[in-house]
Amino acid sequence: MAVVDFVVYSLPMDYRLISVEPLTPRIGAVIEGADLTRTVSDALFEEIHAAWMKHLVLFFRDQPMSYDQHLALGKRFGELHIHPAAPFVDNNPALMRIHTDEHSHRNNGEGWHSDVSADAEPPMASILHIHQTPPQGGDTLWANMYEAYNSLSATFKELLLPLDAIHAANYSGFYGDHAPQRENPSAIHPVVRTHPVTRKQALYVNSGFTRRIKGITSSESEALLTLLFDHVKNPNFHCRFQWQPHSVAIWDNRCTQHMAVWDYYPATRSGVRVTVQGDRPFR
To answer: Is the pTM of this model over 0.85?
Structure first.
């Protein structure tokens, strides 16, 4: 069982160490004044964490981190999560390789999803460091799952609140010849989860991993999931980030989904992701 910090970091009246520029009013912010290649002090981490809880995904430019610095940043948030099957770099499975080029048959994260939600204790945070970008394209979109839930009618919320969904992953052949780290995961999670820090409710089904809603017929489940998957695509919930070399994004998998756009073939987009272990979702 993951150790979860239930402390609610208070949002500073004013940020003393960083500047925070919202990307949209609903999700995303660009952070300046933080050097992630150096040890993150307690004071700096508190400001970053407060901004993260408010904006859900944070973006940092010009951060030429080494692998060790990237790992240290991840450990600042908690125990590191190991992906079930993804390739990795530097002989370390905590350093997930994110790479697409002219020889790739698929793109990492090309559909809306929350990272590895099929795990019994899915990741709480993902930290992606992009090293190489294509000449054009290659953006990533994020969606606010608090807003996705809050925008539903009271009647529909009442329908969803008691429901559970089956999440499952099948990575067979997904990463070519790379041998998986562990078995394909599956888990049952509430359709609406409560964030352990903010205590806000968020929609927690995604087209990448959610297979079926329990307790209703298969046709009812298919219809309901199709509706919810389409609902997540509403651009009013979204922000979009244009990567540059050595940009970093830190997002909260407990209350966001994301999708990487593959509009740059045959160019190369490459980086490394460190992921932070989360807790078992609860209502």
So the answer is: yes
Q: Taking every pair of C-alpha atoms in the chain, what is the biggest distance, in angstroms?
A: 54
Query: What does the alpha-carbon distance between residue 211 and residue 205 come to, in Å, rounded to a whole number?
Result: 9
The domain of 154 spans: 19-276
CATH number, residue 264: 3.60.130.10
User: What element of type H or E holds 74?
Assistant: helix 67-77
Cα distance between residue 95 and residue 74, in whole Å:
10
In a domain, 196, yes or no: yes
Q: Is-contact 126 275, C-beta < 8 A?
A: yes
Two tokens at 206? 């995604």
Q: How crowded is residue 12: how many other Cβ atoms within 10 Å of its Cβ?
A: 15
Alpha-carbon torsion, ordered 212, 281, 256, 26, to 10 deg: 120
Residues 76 and 78: their CA atoms lie apart, in Å, by 6
Query: If DSSP codes are grouped into helix, strand and coil, which group holds residue 272?
Result: strand
Q: Closest Cα to residue 67, out of 94, 39, 35? A: 94
Number of domains in the chain: 1
The answer to whether position 233 is within a domain reads yes
Average pLDDT over all residues of the chain: 93
The CA distances from residue 268 to 102, 104, 261, in Å, are 7, 10, 13
Q: Which residues are catalytic?
A: 113, 115, 258, 273
pLDDT in tens, 21-79: 999 999 999 999 999 999 999 999 999 999 999 999 999 999 999 999 999 999 999 99
